[in-house]
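User: Please predict the structure of the protein below. I'd like the answer in structure-token form so I can feed it into my own downstream comparison script.

Assistant: Understood. Taking the following sequence of 246 residues as input:
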Amino acid sequence: MTYCVGLRLKDGLVMLADTRTNAGVDNIATFKKSHLFQIDGDRMICAMTSGNLAITQAVINLLSDGFESAFSGEQESLFTVTSMFRAAELAGEAVRRVYQRDGDALEQQDMTFSCGLLIGGQIKGRGMRLFQVYSAGNFIEATEDTPFLQIGEHKYGKPILDRACNFETGLNDGVKLSLISMDSTLRSNLTVGMPLDLVVYKKDQDGPPLCRRIEEDDVYFQTIRDSWSNALRDAYRAIPVADWLS
């Protein structure tokens, strides 16, 4: 399985993905799930994936190499689309294209067609946006009311984001929240694993985003883990005992 989270904040984007894939308890591997489509001074698009690895790799290759869109009739890729909305549309088309090719064969093997994507970024002259694309090729967009989106094993990492993340959250705090969200998932689900890939993009910036591979021995991530664990212990100990227990 996997866990990917994207935060579309007032000042920029924070996107974080794990790298574990598994096809059973004895078949665990590491694969990058965070993919950048970048042209300096023109665009920064980050695509993160969850689901069947063969399917998601096929989708990413289509989005990178380009294909003839049924919608526009033109050869398009994430390097050529003119808006982030069109990027999400193209990702949905790519998912449906792979399904048309492989869906029947997967069903014959009793396998589910599983594919999810987070598509976030900005194209010069256009707004910064974040979308979640589903297995059917349809998608939703992060908004100021709900500024984060998740794919994969999201249930363990969602509570901290529900409580603490909003559109006005700063980028530095967004990084902290995404790492806490990931740490909560790592502790509770063995199908999500290190290392992690972090992308931080400041709205309207011309240069490349900050990209960081976070390994097990990363000092800052260890600080996050220890500080959050200690803060939770202190918080529950500080809560008064119910009067009816006495």
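That's the full token string. Residues 3-235 form a domain with the Glutamine Phosphoribosylpyrophosphate, subunit 1, domain 1 fold (CATH 3.60.20.10).
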